[in-house]
Specification:
Blueprint (H helix, E strand, L loop, with lengths): L3 E4 L2 E4 L4 E7 L9 E6 L6 E6 L5 E3 L7 E6 L4 E6 L8 E7 L11 E6 L1
Parallel strand pairs: 2-10
Antiparallel strand pairs: 1-3, 3-8, 4-5, 4-9, 5-6, 7-8, 9-10
Amino acid sequence: QVQFVESGGGLVQSGGSRRLSCAVSGSAFSSYAIAWYRQAPGKQRESVAVIDTDGFTTYGDSVKGRFTISRDNSKNTVTLQMNSLKTDDAGAYYCNYIPPISDRWGPGTQVTVSS
């Protein structure tokens, strides 16, 4: 069964950078579009970056130009490079397929941005 395990979160100053990684179990990884989702305190989880099976990427307006999503199908991993971080970027970050598998959310990785 598919499993998502996120890592790389932590405390970063506003304007700084952070790189998140997600390891995905299962042999069908290359067949799915995958996204990074963010859940800020008191808010609903939202997709911030998506990469499809051909490597085409789309970004939420709030992160466009600052975040970069990439995938390595040989390693079943997806990464999120976050630059010029803002306090509004803080939250728990998760990876999951598009559409997400509702009962397979991983533990997430927490990003805290200090002003």
